[in-house]
Write a structure and sequence with these properties.
This protein is α+β, with helices and mostly antiparallel strands. It has one domain. The protein is built from seven helices and ten strands. A five-stranded mixed sheet has the order 1-6-7-8-3. A hairpin with a 7-residue loop joins strand 7 and strand 8. The longest helix has 17 residues. It is globular. The relative contact order is 0.25.
Length: 234
């Protein structure tokens, strides 16, 4: 297994007000057997929560704004008429989207509440081929059941979240001989851009807030991602 620490200068999250650090526990109200249920590394049973972070704000905005990418064919068909009727254009993100969210940077200090972790706050690196090869014997049956020949990059980054959610559960349940948890979560890369490094952090990890700020229209990372996606953020 390959394990890594989060960046020393912290990780970022774009969250909803009033609680920017609320954990995802979507399995409690959804069906874990459906491929697109919940977030990638949520608990398959709702037994624990997961908070999602990125190493930089580009990754945060890249993940959160992806759902708003404009359908270019739709934009050509309704663009002019839609605007004339007073509606926002396809690909426009209203100011309300920003105002309901904030950006927060945190770190996960060793010691204190996190002293309960076996080797400090370390994350399972699912992008490592060594990690995936080590996991393969435990997941061969599950992979065959869902029709996958291997535990490879397309599986861990793909749209089907059934396998990844059970990887999350396996990771969460690993303890040392003293029953201390071994992993604080999972390090992975975005399926949209391999330059975006992401972190799924279990809700038993203590967090230290470093800074928070409102999301403003002149946010450089926000505008970089919006330009890439062909969006306009107001």
């Amino acid at each position: 297994m390959e394990v890594v620490a989060a960046p020393e200068d912290g990780v970022w999250r774009v969250g909803r007000e009033p609680d920017l650090l609320s954990a995802s526990v979507s399995a409690k109200i959804s069906r874990p057997g459906k491929p697109n249920t919940g977030n990638r590394f949520d608990s398959p049973t709702g037994a624990y929560g997961v908070r999602y972070f990125a190493s930089d704000l580009d990754g945060c905005y890249g993940e959160t704004l992806a759902r708003f990418r404009a359908d270019k064919k739709l934009a050509r068909v309704i663009g002019a008429e839609w605007s004339e009727l007073g509606f926002m254009n396809v690909g426009d993100i209203p100011a309300d989207w920003r105002q309901r969210r904030g950006a927060i940077r945190v770190r996960f200090p060793d010691g204190g509440s996190n002293a309960t972790f076996s080797a400090g706050v370390r994350f399972l690196d699912i992008e490592s081929v060594q990690t995936r090869e080590a996991l393969l014997p435990d997941f061969e049956t599950l992979l065959r059941f869902f029709g996958y020949p291997d535990l490879d990059v397309p599986v861990v980054r793909g749209h089907d979240r059934r396998v990844t959610r059970y990887i999350s559960q396996w990771t969460y349940e690993q303890v040392d001989e003293d029953e201390r948890p071994m992993y604080a979560g999972i390090r992975y890369l975005s399926r949209l851009n391999s330059d975006w490094e992401l972190w799924a952090v279990f809700d038993n990890v203590a967090i230290e807030e470093m800074t928070r700020r409102a999301i403003l229209p002149n946010d450089e990372a926000l505008n970089r991602v919006a330009k890439t996606y062909g969006l306009t953020v107001y």
